[in-house]
Amino acid sequence: MMIKKVLITGANKGIGLETARQLLQQGYYVYLGSRSIERGNIAVEKLKEEGFTNVEFIQLDVNDIASVAAARMELGKRTDVLDVLINNAGINGGMPQNALNANIEQLQNVLNTNLYGVVRVTQAFVDLLRKSAQPRIVNVSSSGCSLTLHSDPTWKYYDHKSAVYAPSKATMNMYTIALAYELKDENFKVNAVCPGFVATDFNGHLGTGTVQEAGTRIAKYATIGEEGPTGKFISEEYNPETGECPW
């Protein structure tokens, strides 16, 4: 049986690292993407100390097209197929994020990572994914970018508006819809998945969930079978029954 292979961006810590750990536990071979060589290697060594051997570091800065191209070339030397791509790298852009105070540079920086980074990486590695019998793409999103929920005064996070981060993820969600549609006849499953409101460095550890819960949610949609959804916005924290989150 062929070992399935996954590339995870921004995987040197937090949710990305935990997702790598959980997929290793399921027998996947993990290519751990990280912008920082030092942090990436430390993360790989940590996983190896835990007993995992099927993990390698790939230097990958999603903000830099040259870095993405170099990562694609390097990965192509190590494997001729990729089964899963998890676009996990992201930034929040700093606070506050009021609509009248957010500046264009702040928006550009966040979009460069959260949207353009996803596009760069997906387009660079889709040829390897197409060689998989069951290719999967997970774009890590957030229920906090739901236009429907943010328009509902009864939603518990209604007052937590973000004029930078949320628009970047909402735009990424639309890209996910378009991507899933374009790949619908090629056995791909492409979904935007919210890991939940998780306590990590990303939000100053203000979240209420754990990285273990988040990793489980992402890994689930990275490994779904033929019966699984595609082109969906998933938040099992918001909707534990069906998993679907309103756009």
TrEMBL record:
<keyword id="KW-0521">NADP</keyword>
<dbReference type="InterPro" id="IPR002347">
    <property type="entry name" value="SDR_fam"/>
</dbReference>
<protein>
    <submittedName>
        <fullName>Dehydrogenase</fullName>
    </submittedName>
</protein>
<dbReference type="InterPro" id="IPR036291">
    <property type="entry name" value="NAD(P)-bd_dom_sf"/>
</dbReference>
<keyword id="KW-0560">Oxidoreductase</keyword>
<dbReference type="Pfam" id="PF00106">
    <property type="entry name" value="adh_short"/>
</dbReference>
<comment type="similarity">
    <text>Belongs to the short-chain dehydrogenases/reductases (SDR) family.</text>
</comment>
<dbReference type="InterPro" id="IPR045313">
    <property type="entry name" value="CBR1-like"/>
</dbReference>
